[in-house]
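Tokens help. Our protein:
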Amino acid sequence: MKAWDALFSIKEFRFEEVMRAAVLPGLTRTGGVDTELRAANRSIEALATICRLAGKTTKADHPLPMGRLGSDRAFFNLSRLDVPCRSEDDDLAWAPAHQVYFGRDWVGEDSVEGIVEAMAAAGERLDVKFLASPEAFAAYSSAIGVRVDEDEGAEREPDDDEGEVDLEDDTDEALETTVDDRWRNFFAWLGVSRGLRLVHFHDVDDTGTGWTSTKGLGLPGGWAFAALEDAWTDYLEALTGSLEADPRWDSTDHYLYQAHNLDRLDEIAAVAQRAGNDVATEFLNHLVRNWSSYSQHTQAELALVPKGKQPSQRNSPQRAFSEERAPGGPDFWLHRLRNHAVCPTSHGPRRPSQTWRRTDELERRLGRSGRNADAYLPELSQPEGTSPAQLRACLDELQVRGELTPAAFTTDDAGELCVRLSQVYADGVTEQVARRQLRPLYRELFELLAGTNTDATTPLADAPLAARTSTGITFLPAREVLYAAVSGSRERSGVQDRVPLFVLEAEPGANRPLRELFGTPLLESALEWSVQPGEVVLDETQLSTFRQGLTELLPPLLARLSADRADRSRLDKKVLTEFAQQIEPVEALSMSCTFRGEDLGSIPQRAYHVRRTERDEFQGFVVWTGPAWPPVAEDAQALAMALAEALEVNTVETFLSFINANPTMRRQLLDLAGASDKWQEVTEELASGDDESDTSDDGTGEDTNFQSDGESTEADAGARPATPPAAQQAAARVPLHSFEDLLIDGEVIRVSGATPKTSTGGKGTGGGTTTEDAPSGSRGAPRAAQGTDLNELDRLGMRITFAFEQRRFPGRSTAVLPSDQPAPDADVLIVDVSSPSMIKEAVSQSSVVKAVFETLRGQGISDLFPGFDILTINGTEIDRMIELKSSGVDAQVQAMSWNEWKTAGGNVRHRFWLYLVGNLRADLQDAIPFVRAVQDPFGTLASSSSEDVIRKRTVQLRVREFEAADELKLALRATPGAGD
């Protein structure tokens, strides 16, 4: 060592040369190994000298074991240098640096000691070697070149040259730092680990396992990958899935270039998944605290070598050329973590894909029953005292679940939630608990399952559901439970105490999930009724009078029904017409019922029965005791209940009122319901035999007015009123904000680049006239307050969206098309595609736009009616396809045409965005204008479809039930007189 110390007075030496001569010969694994030299260097004094000699060569964030093919390859074998470790006695034990870990005395809570202690508390030993404490190295501060002032608190005069880089600076000179920092950086460079170390398949302890031995992507031969054949088979799909489309794939041989396993993962995971210990908590905490290191190795890397080439014959060290290297998906250690139950949750350790993060949305949906949301779903027990950014990054890579939304919720989640409900309420369920807790939870469940599709048949048939039985509320497999889809049918059936009935009933959103996912039969169809009617009590003349009375009842009933469910008007008309023509008034009615082949015995008899046969034919009977028409009280009540059964609604009182009323009173009832204007319309349809068949304009007529989605307007559909409406006083104009008065971050917003052509664009939420080229939106309901200038509303929303899009590309040149000026060569194009004329002009102005529309055409999207309003092109690639909805207020529901909805759910749905520009009315003082952008509304927003009176199908989006992907609130420029 004294000879080494003499080197520090000589400038002409290189650290690499000294190591080659005095250290590395004792550390090689091939050729002649100098064991005496290795033993001679097994002292703290020798380590101190090497540490000092290494100087600025050390890089704590680039440990040598990870750099076999890197810039520090010359020093790679130094990671085998023996370092002192703790032992149970006072003597130091020695082990290769790459096998050793820092303890808390070196790195605090980042150390693996927390995991070791949690394993020990669980009865398992994790054999880990910890570096000797800093005190063991304190005496060698001068040997490593760190100056320690006797009075560290003393101030010294500032150096005028402080921080200046001298041309004579020695690159091997020791860094000025604390003793502990110098030692810590040196050992970290050698390979002593803060966190559980990542082990490359060609590890320090492995020979003959380099990347050239991995042709064909079979399981690598390194020690850390041994006996993992099953895990590797599963991993290959994730490793190669994204690369099979690479044009190089078929013409190359595939090698594994970079992949790692996590040291001790199997030992830790085996204990972590047991209940009643803290291993999972400590393990996740450890990952998060050390994520800055782990995040550098989350992607595997492949080498795609042209076939016929032999990389093993390249000059040593054999490296893959840059053009051969390709990312291969998640690294092996990360893939394995995602499939281990290492996430601590309220339900015990779970895999990341089974674990939900703690969010406000989770609590909102499931935390209103008197219990926390984590009582029902496995919610992550989030580490405390860690960096939020590192926590988020770690959870994202592990793929821990985020927001609880219909798009994220799966049938597996639904099954786990159902099981958990049966466990939480295993001690019994009272009617009060069912009403206040279970029913709201089930409603949330079915809302989360909205739109869920599965290839499996009733995958949740065995999931437990709460059902009313003769012994009270209990949990039964879903396939054994019945669901009453119509309110009141449970009571009217008379069998509620004889069959298991789901505690939730008459919830439209539950019908499809219960039928398709849970396999729960509907009460109305699961019961098998045997009916024995008496004779018809009316003669031919009386029966004619009876049917005439029913026929006269149809228009007011249809008008009344349309006020509540216009989307079912066509079906209601069919059902009511069949009812009036085929219901049979009989003298008596006897019924029996069986369920799954078992006779339910004596059941309460009723005075009506209606059903549809297997051939979908109507069959109905009603006990009739009085004159043909008008009916007596008992007959009217039976008829009202029969109508409710046929129409599957629970409005018996409404039907009874119409049956007992004369024409004048019926008109009054319709006035009260706001449906009097429907009576004449329905009467004419019934008289003409109008079947309301769907019609659509093919767009070939010269005088056709187009919408942006290619659907015909009211005039085209022939729904113009026969006589012009009576003249009415014009509504007061609703003021809108001026575009020039809107601010972003205190600055007036501008649309830069070429001047865009005037366009309305987008679909507002209020009614009004439109020009031939201007989109008109959905017409099933008013689009905005009466008096709103819809063209101006749409134009304002479009200009705000242009500015929003340009704001997303800071520092990039942008252009809006079509333009009154020649389009410049811009990095980003923002194209108005809200009408055919705009599309044609934009295509004529830009070859890029033309090429993009050719691509869209290949996806089945129309050239003239693409189903969105704005197309943003980044370079030559589609960035966003934007459907714009402009509103004077913060609308809760927005309508999308069927054409728009089809585009939103098509092959390019990940590029489809719904932009909501709202609060544009100037007379709403506290309403702040905003832009909200939602990606993939098809998979994100709850929706329902409807058809308006002119047969245009629309989709109603509950746009308040999401978290905006992007949101920008605008300010208003102060104007003279504001606030007066």
Summary: The first strand starts at residue 82 and ends at 85. The CA atoms of residues 681 and 687 lie 10 Å apart. The chain has 30 helices and 32 strands.
